[in-house]
Write the structure tokens for this entry.
Amino acid sequence: MNFFEQTGKMAIGSRLRLLTGRITDDSAMLYQLYGFDLTPKWFPVFFVLSQNEALSITEIAQQIGHSQPSVTKIIKEMTKAGLVKSNLKSADKRQNLVGLTAKGKLLAASIQVQYQDVAAAIEDLENQATYHLWEAVAEWEFLLDQQSLLSRVKQQRKLRESKDVTIVGYSPKYKKAFKELNEQWITKYFELEQADKDAINHPQSYIINKGGQILVALYKNEPVGVCALIKMDHPKYDFEMAKMAVSPEAQGKRIGYMLGTAIIEVAKKAGATYLYLESNTKLTPAINLYYKLGFEKIPSSPLLISGQISIWN
Amino acid sequence: MNFFEQTGKMAIGSRLRLLTGRITDDSAMLYQLYGFDLTPKWFPVFFVLSQNEALSITEIAQQIGHSQPSVTKIIKEMTKAGLVKSNLKSADKRQNLVGLTAKGKLLAASIQVQYQDVAAAIEDLENQATYHLWEAVAEWEFLLDQQSLLSRVKQQRKLRESKDVTIVGYSPKYKKAFKELNEQWITKYFELEQADKDAINHPQSYIINKGGQILVALYKNEPVGVCALIKMDHPKYDFEMAKMAVSPEAQGKRIGYMLGTAIIEVAKKAGATYLYLESNTKLTPAINLYYKLGFEKIPSSPLLISGQISIWN
DNA sequence: TTTAATTATATAACTGGTTATGCAAATTTA
DNA sequence: TAAATTTGCATAACCAGTTATATAATTAAA
């Protein structure tokens, strides 16, 4: 199996498929060896039916983890083989209650010896092994229930991509980016007010020269996010965090979070203890980010959330 | 997954199938997420082709562990998608040498980031687990290479069935069985001689009364095997082991072996140090059994093997 | 050097599952 | 209580693999 040494673990799906096929093939031969008229694909259905007097198609499907049409087909085949009787009396006329026939029950009783031998063989095999397949599979099921493989890979991608993101200070070459990124999202949700226009068109004079700061997030050396710290003249708040914008194409790389923590760092170094922030509550993802950064809601104003950093001190 | 707790490990095939499906489904979505025009089933072929300039269909099939028609179909699809060019120049005109196109090579290069993310996600998952799926699968492959599941179950069956076998001493109620079992196999291969007839028709007078012994193997209380110890008047050999017969229906339950070890035990208790045995070499399974019991060939006679017990002392 | 056997591939037919869909019965909602 | 929604099932169509088989090219054997 040199192939899988080359691919590494990302081929786990292919590798599992091959092993499964191997086991299923041998299982088919086992039923033959013991002289039972059964196929591996009937097994799960047969097993649950031997544990229950009668079940509906859907109940069986749920218990064994198959789709409902799969069970319908299997039941049809098993009925033909005389193992199962369907359409038993049910109060719910949509349901097709099925159960084992006398022949099926006889088979269920006599197949016990085969079950024992197979269980013993697998137990023996697992005892020879240092890694345990059964438990490993159970654990993967559990871990994938908690978070799917898809979502785990997405998380890894974010992690990797955030390594390609650097945060730099403002310089005139980012003037255009600062304007466009802010324009983009503000016009999407609101109208551009004069104060907005002033700030995003003239960051140097309206923000930096007044004691503020601007940070730019670069992804592969292209500016994809900005954030500003605006000097406030207020007894409690030293700065306002504002004009945070991230390009939609660069979403999902935790750029907002990186800009936020960086700007807080800058504010701290400038001696600030509280930051002010205004946001419309309808911008849910942004609000979540602010909470994550440590901002808290000021109860007074219902529509806006303003906040203060409670993280430090 | 309560179902698999009920079935126990004999449902390992079904359980693996479900897990495999789950992983494959997520893999398909991953290719979509990263924007690559690839499906999970192409992956093994695509991977080996990205490692080799050109391969024949059969070579690919062997490397990835698929059937040849499966690869043929996949190559057809990938050719249609422009990833693969087939019928490259080959000395052997039967062969269909295939390799990646420029587009395929580009894809191979750009998909590396996805590979990395998937590998990292799986690595992370395995690090969270106490049992390790990848290694467990590799170990099962190895153990099944050594001995198939089918053969392991057969072994367990023998073991179980040999527990239902008991060895008892001769009594007149086994007279018929002793005769029939011996008649059955002797007439199958040879002619019944007068000495044979005497012994199998009158075991009491011809064997036991002359200082010999007879053991009977019972399977579910039915006599299915016999073996005799015949007193010899010889300077070296105390007894001859003879008239061993096992019913064909009871074959494969290690009954011959059990009878043999029991009769040797009896001989030991009677003070014997060497046993004599004659057999025609064409009875290969029997010969193997005798060797297993500790008999050795007497070089002089080519057609017969006679022997001596060298196990004890 | 024919002839026979083997090898490489393609194709057809099958298998054990899946999703999509439509219909009838049951349940919930207005 | 009529209308809308949900549920249970069967059927159809598909999918990713398989085995069986035919054909052409190559290799081995007579």
In short: Chain B has 14 helices and ten strands.
